[in-house]
Amino acid sequence: MINFAHGEVMMLGAYSGFFVFEAFKAIKVSTEPVLTFSNAYPVLAVLIAFLVGMTVSALAGYSLERIAYRPLRKAPRLVPLIGAIGASIFLQNAAQLLFSPQLRDVTNPEILARGTGWSIMVNGSKVILPYTGVFTFVLSLILLAGLYLVVQKTRLGRSMRAVALDKKTASLMGIDVDKTISLTFLISGALAGAAGVMWGIHNGLVYYFVGFIPGIKAFTAAVLGGIGNLPGAMLGGLFLGLIESLGPAALGIDFQLKDVIAFALLIIVLIFRPSGLLGERLAEEKL
Amino acid sequence: MKQNLRQSLNTGITFGLVHVFLVLIGFNTLIGTLFAKLFGTPVSGSQPPAFTLIIYTAILGIWAGLAATKKAQNRTLPGFLAAGTLSGLTAGVIGFLFSLGLGWFLVNRVDFRQYLAFLSFDFIKATLFNLTPLLGALLTAGIFTAAGAVGGLVNGVRNIRRVKEGFNTIRLAGGRVVYNASALLHGRHRLFVRIGLLTALAALIILLPLKWGSYWNYVAGTVGLYVILGLGLNIIVGLSGQLVLGYIAFFAIGAYTMALLNSPIPHNLMWGFWPAVVLGVVLAALAGLLLGLPLMRLRGDYLAIVTLGFGEIIRILLKSDVLTDFTGGPRGIQNINGPVLFGKAFNSDIHFTYLIFAAVVLAAFVYSHLENSRTGRAWLAIREDETVARATGVNTTRYKLLALALGAAFAGLAGAIYASRNQFTGPEEHSLMASINVISLIIVGGMGNIPGTILGAFALKGLPEILREFANYRLLTFGALLVVMMLSRPNGLIPSRRPRYKIKDELENNPGSAEGENDQ
């Protein structure tokens, strides 16, 4: 079932990161020169921001599953989908009411300031490789490696794969399906939270609607790589990001149509290669 | 015993957290203001008087008590009381701590409004019932506990055998009333009854728009358009079971056809209303057909996402500057001409309301004929199990495409009328949110039947107009409503009934044997 509210889980993580950085911005370690907590202990600040963001999002994902998805597990397809959409709308508007619709600016620690980075020469002109970009990329790789290890090498991962394959048989084999699904949502929530904090650090803007498009693109990436296939999803994300960034320039069309490329890619993949680049066939009817 | 304890605690914690959330989004003062209006008490300043907030908190507390004791579970009356009190107490503790926290903000003059938008000092004062933080917090906890006790007591009383019997008698009497009413509609004199009802309805439809004033005409028109949309989507989702999330794209096609053919910018074609409506419907139907062709093999959720993507692509394309020359770009198209019937131009909302009512009647007529025809039964078969339908000889591809085309046609009709009435249309009006609105109205109202669609359209479009004070919380309630509806009544408020066939002889001779009836 498609978790429409995943983008909102990410949004909550992004807001948590924002609040942590705001709090650390306010705590002053010394007054001459003025040094905020963020700038005095940047590593610690970033670490705490990520921990808080991931925890909040993990809890959000867990609550979502317990409240809106678990009771609807056996219902016809349309019902949990609408429930997910309802949850998504609810979370967006709750965030809008709680935190006001104002666009929020995330204040990074100075060593990670947006826009700064290594200057390299490409074809005679200077290009900046941003610190935040590299940071995001490296951290993503680390998190994804961790996820891969968990899913492939641990017992929990084996349970997850078993439940994904066949719930009933998994329960017959002694796997606690409910607990496994809950843990899955916890982990996926944590990752979404990390993504949210990274979004705040790299893109700088956090607001209640920030999760919507990334949520859909996340699904596109997963489908691109093949649903149920983790390395596929990673490759899919990479591929999607590249196409989105290079596509408008390469195809000679406006940058406004960046999202159109993403959606068009999703449609094309689902129609012509539902199994994705590497993976499983879940989009077609099993006849 | 332990389970009861845990249930009370869990309920209490939930309600405590809900209370915190509702305060942070300003819901308590909104309800307080409404109560003040209800009791005629003047509201001084921007916050309601304390007693209204006391009532609000008490209601939450009673609810906590009721929820904690929902299932009887072998309790005695004191047991009910205790469970309710415990639940209220737990919520009260959370409320207590929260109020103390708010009080800290107040006492230290910390303005947190840039992070939590509602926490102005006046608001915090009101939430603390205009008392000192400690007293306010204690009062909150006290109200929750006492109200929780009341809630538990109510459920306890309801559980007493005598009371239960009393309720059953009332329920039986009510059932008898419904049965008699239904007998009127289906009984010997049903022709008279039905004609009578229809005449009354027709009289209402013709006379009300003349008396309402233009605001309610506008609202009624909007509800009517949404009924048409709901019927169209019901064909696709309710009858044939294909989950389409980008439905509003067909609406956009109808609206933009009308707009582009009847406005001086960008094309100045001025074809007139009626040819544009027909063309809008045809183009929308064609679009439905073309969209459906590559998607025939997709399964439920994936079909939903793809159609969502398609809807978004249409919106982004309409909004972009790239196609401005053709579609008018982000600003939309203005000054769309209205319809001209028998030489008279439509220049008031009354005319449009009649037009929309006529369109609704047409749509309902077409829909009900489709529903009860061979096509309709084919759709139901496809919805229930496509493989079996195919195995019994139903050409699923053809019927699925037909459903898409027809549903899209309905949307095109609604779109064309909408653009003409508003004299304006733009890309932001055709967003995903609009698609979700239509899907929700058929799900909340009841999928696959006409009264359900009308109820849904009224609930989702008419009620917000009536409950204007809640405007800020509309979408929040909407999202929560969707989730709650899916958890409690996934078939909608008026569920659809499948065709039932009773084999009369068997019923009369052997009451216990199987009847030829289908279940839901």
Structural overview:
The complex is a heterodimer of chains A (287) and B (520). Chain A has helices at residues 6-26, 37-40, 42-69, 78-99, 131-153, 155-165, 167-172, 177-203, 212-225, 230-251, 258-272; strands spanning 28-31, 34-36, 104-105, 117-122, 125-130, 205-206. Chain A is mainly α and 287 residues long. In chain A, helix 1 runs parallel beside helix 4. The two termini of chain A are 19 Å apart. The model of chain A is unreliable at 281-287 (pLDDT under 50). Chain B has 520 residues and is an all-alpha fold. Chain B has 21 helices and 4 strands. Chain B has a two-stranded antiparallel ribbon with strand order 1-4. In chain B, strands 2-3 form a two-stranded antiparallel ribbon. In chain B, strand 2 and strand 3 (344-345) form a beta hairpin. Classes of the chains: A mainly alpha (287), B mainly alpha (520). The interface between A and B is large, with 53 and 52 residues.
Provide a compact summary of the structure.
The complex is a heterodimer of chains A (287) and B (520). Chain A is mainly α and 287 residues long.
What labels would you give this structure?
heterodimer, A: 287 residues, mainly alpha, 2 domains, two-stranded antiparallel sheet, 11 helices, 6 strands, 67% helix, disordered C terminus, B: 520 residues, two-stranded antiparallel ribbon, 21 helices, 4 strands, globular
Radius of gyration over C-alpha positions of chain A, nearest whole angstrom: 20 Å
What is the strand tally of chain B? 4
The strand order across the widest sheet of chain A is: 1-2
Mean pLDDT figure of chain A? 85
The two chains with the largest interface, and their residue counts, are: A-B, 53 and 52 residues
Order of helices and strands of chain B: HHHHHHHHHHHHHEEEHHHHEHHHH
- What low-confidence regions of chain B span 5 or more consecutive residues with pLDDT below 50? 513-520
- Helical/strand content category of chain B: mainly alpha
| Quaternary structure of the protein | heterodimer
Total strands of chain A: the figure is 6
Percent of residues in beta strands of chain B: under 5%
User: What does the overall shape of chain A look like?
Assistant: globular
